[in-house]
Amino acid sequence: SPVVPTDAELLQKQADLLRHSLYYLNSMALKCAVELGIPTAIHRFGGAASVPDLITGLSLPQAKLPFLRRLMRLLATSGVFTFDSSTEVYGINALSYLLVEGITDDRHINHTSFLHTATSSRYIEAAMGLADWFKKDILTHPFEDLHGVKLFQESMANHDADYHKMANDALAAHDNFGVDIGLREFRHIFEGIKSMTYCCGSDGDDPTPRAIVKAFPHIKCTVLANPKLIGTIPGAVAVINYVAGDMLKFVPPAQVVVFKLVLHHWNDEYCVKILSQCKKAIPSREDGGKVLIGDIVIESSPGPMRESHLLMDIGMMTMTEGRERDENEWRDIFMKAGFRDYKLLSKFGARGVFEVA
């Protein structure tokens, strides 16, 4: 029989429903703060600023001070900024640090393009049409169904070049963040590797292979990239062999094949095809052959990380043909591609690192 909630539960859950219904205002408040330049302004104030400081520093009308105070209160509560109640000063934390412009620290990649893309009208309109999309017997994802183009693809570039650039900048910021941290944390993985094929995703200027050969000059590195990107890659170095090709059809032979945030853009069928080509490209497990995969692995425990992963999954479902996977779903793909074993070596922020052999 259905559970009948108590009066107290109904009152509490109405408040929860309000929160869920208005979650989008968190995103819009953050978008507003970045468009106003608030994270950068606080950083230039030395990392902490009051609301009057921000009004003056951003040349905003004095009449907007009480409204900005309300905006900042929400953003501090949602974890974007710190707040010192004794001084009424807001500060930069690790999250808002990612949205500051002009930081020269090598670890810093500005994520404003990701925020602008994820909160763009094109994204939001596709998400608003999810119910209609579910009712249609179609294979195209909601973004393509609505706009008639595919995100990150040439059709998007021809339709809206500026949006295409912003979306690709967002993809690069997300995918290329933390490369140096990863190479330090997983240094032991690369020590015994003699040759490597790195499979690029849609970003032709992926800095990862260059960072790997700089850190491990003994590795003979081949990069498999989209033919349209070969020759346009700035900073290509002589020690890296860039090869044009399609990973669905061929992966250049090497001891190890490496993917970083590529496979979550593909459906299961294509992932199996790609990994089957990898299996042909590497020697046996006994001879050191393996595939290293850095990608999102849906967190099994409840909490903010799992929520981030599941939001990303619905984002992928709405905007692309890809998906996020939990460990069991990854294992199924590895086994279907003909591999016998895998290890989830470590979690790395929102990602996991698999060794597959």
TrEMBL record:
Species name: Eragrostis curvula (weeping love grass)
Entry keyword annotation includes DNA damage: no
Taxonomic path: Eukaryota, Viridiplantae, Streptophyta, Embryophyta, Tracheophyta
Keywords: Methyltransferase, S-adenosyl-L-methionine, Transferase
Domain O-methyltransferase dimerisation: 19-101
GO biological process: methylation
One Gene Ontology MF term: O-methyltransferase activity
Protein name: O-methyltransferase domain-containing protein
Domain annotation O-methyltransferase C-terminal: ranges: 130-340
UniProt-listed InterPro entries: COMT-like (IPR016461), COMT_C (IPR001077), COMT_dimerisation (IPR012967), SAM-dependent_MTases_sf (IPR029063), WH-like_DNA-bd_sf (IPR036388), WH_DNA-bd_sf (IPR036390)
Annotated active site: H264
